[in-house]
Amino acid sequence: MKCSPLDLIFLFRHLPYLMIMKQKAAERFLDMQIQEGIELQYMLEAYPQVHYAPLEFYYICLKGVSILDEDVISDLTQHYSWRGILIAGWLSILYPSEAFYPILDKVLPITPEPNLWIVELALAEIRKIPFKDKVLQQKFFRFRDLLHTAKYEKASVRKLPFPDLAPEEKKHTDELRSICRKEGVKAARQHMSDSPFWKLFMDPL
């Protein structure tokens, strides 16, 4: 794991992955979003100064696209089960990068069958080749065009300053338990507030 989990959690809270996990359902959802985007394009163009509730899916996609890099795609595909693979595929379609290709290609064999289409489409978009369902691919082109009428700035998630989370988590958890046992809950909470390690999991980006 390379990225602070707290900086990625908004993707799982706000992206409707259950509505986009299967191709036909995702296509229907995309049709609705495209229609909203066409009708409210003038509102999209006013982002980020103006937020309008019917465009919330666009805003979440923009926030997701803004943080994309190889580490984010790697973490999503390796540490967040099929949901992470699905979200990584979706965002890679919206912001295709050659750097994402080997990461997505590697998880293709372990991707659940209902979600294969989104990884395959992401790979096709990265390589700029036709997808087997050209109608769906065109709909993503349209959605992506609408999405990018909104202004956004690239952002960066916080990166974990150690190669392996598990031993670090155990060390800091043991330390926290010791403080709680010896000095009480209040002292343990203060320790968490002051700790750079625990801030990675407590303070959102």
Helical/strand content category: mainly alpha
Low-confidence stretches: none
Helix content: 55-70%
End-to-end Cα distance, whole Å, is 17 Å
Q: State the shape.
A: globular
Mean pLDDT: 90
Strand fraction equals under 5%
- Major pleated sheet: none
Describe the fold and architecture.
The mean pLDDT is about 90. It is built from 13 helices and no strands. The chain has helices at about 10-15, 15-20, 25-40, 40-45, 55-65, 70-80, 80-95, 100-105, 115-125, 135-145, 165-185, 185-195, 195-200. α3 runs parallel beside α10 and α11 (about 165-185) runs antiparallel to α12.
Report a brief summary of the structure.
The protein is mainly alpha-helical.
List the helices and strands and how they pair.
Elements: H1 9-14, H2 17-20, H3 23-39, H4 41-44, H5 56-66, H6 70-79, H7 81-94, H8 101-107, H9 116-127, H10 134-147, H11 165-183, H12 185-194, H13 196-202
Q: Any key phrases for this structure?
A:
globular
